[in-house]
Amino acid sequence: MAEKYLLRVTAGPSYDPTSHQVVAVNSGTPTTIHSALCTANVTVRVQNYRGTYSLGHAILPAGSHEITGLPHGSPSTSTYFSHPPHTHDQYSISFSFVPHRSISGKSLVFGNDFEHPVRDRIPPGFSAAFKIVKWAIDPGLDGDVYADKPHLYGNALSSINVLSVGPKAGKEAFETSKAVGSGDQEEVITEGGFEGGQEVRERLNIPNNAAARQKWFLGGHDRLEGWQWEEGRLYKADFFNPYLDFNEFALKLPGFSLKVLGYLGGEDYLRYVLKDRDSGEVLFVVVFTLLPKDQVDKDEAMTPTSGKSTAERSDDPGGRTFEPQADDLD
Fold it and tell me: What are 77-98's pLDDT values in tens digits?
């Protein structure tokens, strides 16, 4: 059962969990990441974020004071989900980033991968679910879930739901710019361009509508090759959908539902990565980790500034692994 677990989100510049920070989910305060390829601010929101709120020796039930999840003090929702485009969405990974070198449009991908095989635990119906995902969410999604290191990637230009192109800022300007968001006022990214970014889109005849832009970049490799994620330019992006419910750990597709706990194949994490597929270099990684409630030591339930937990110090990208019980997969 999903309520037996807590969800924690971490992010960092590599697959190495010791490089990660705990993300303050639903806070509106971005997590800043410095990697060899970019400087990025990442904000994660989860609707009905469920877990426990710990304070000293007291553990309050989920929903108390509308505060749930790990780290302790995380709100159960965000004002993001009150905005008309997002009232039905279940989660969002939004980010602003400045590349440190130019990356070809055909090379930058966004998606999920695992360190270990999951082929033995892929549930019946996965092939049907994947076809629905390609139809309803991302026609450009591709990968191999039966590989030793399973992966599902989509080209960033067609997979990202919202893309906004900004100015040539440079990483120093990015780090101090109000444009990348702050905890004082939560930013909801919209499609388009600003401070010179709109001219970049117009020069390449890229549609200003998000869905049209995604479809446009699915139209051929020449369009992907004509795009450069330019060194020193500021980009803002948002990835979201109403189908993956982290509250129930279920993929709820039109006419089809699949429990994510079963799909994880005994691993306790779901990992998103933005990477250069050609070179294999990572821009940043976001990891959603399941923690069994009865194994969580409340003294180690970390805050964003309290350091690394035992789970994060393991060699597994998601920390401790576990084998779901039979009733967890119902």
Answer: 999 999 999 999 999 999 999 9
